[in-house]
Design goal:
By secondary structure, the chain is an all-beta fold. It is built from no helices and ten strands.
């Protein structure tokens, strides 16, 4: 099992920044690709960003490309999402998940086994 705890969300004005953290409880953190999803009220859970096991590969949704940066610290069992130039449409609950599959195209959230409770990000206009 992998236990995940997201933190760092909050209320910010448009144009502001937040840094989200996801702490993983596992002895084998480095074997997992890590993925950030977000879910706004009434909408599906959509991928935001992903990072490979060693941190050398990244993926970003078009809607956040150039504004968000995903990173990881395997020594701390933590993945981060730096969010800059936030927009009201970024408002959502942000979740992280661990993925032990081969790196590839984004997949449905139904295909991931581990989730945290999420952290709320609210961006006011």
């Amino acid at each position: 099992q992998v236990q995940l705890v997201e933190s760092g969300g909050g209320l910010v004005q448009a144009g502001g920044s937040l840094r989200l953290s996801c702490a993983a409880s596992t002895r084998t953190f480095s074997v997992y690709n890590m993925v950030w999803f977000r879910q706004a009220p009434g909408k599906e859970r959509d991928v935001v960003a992903a990072i490979s096991r060693g941190g050398l590969r990244t993926y970003y949704a078009d809607s956040v490309k150039g504004r968000f940066t995903i990173s990881r610290d395997n020594a701390k069992n933590t993945v981060y999402l730096q969010m800059n130039s936030l927009k009201p449409e970024d408002t959502a609950v942000y979740y992280c998940t661990a993925d032990d599959a081969t790196w590839g195209a984004p997949r449905s959230p139904l295909e991931y086994d581990y989730w945290g409770q999420g952290t709320q990000v609210t961006v006011s206009s």
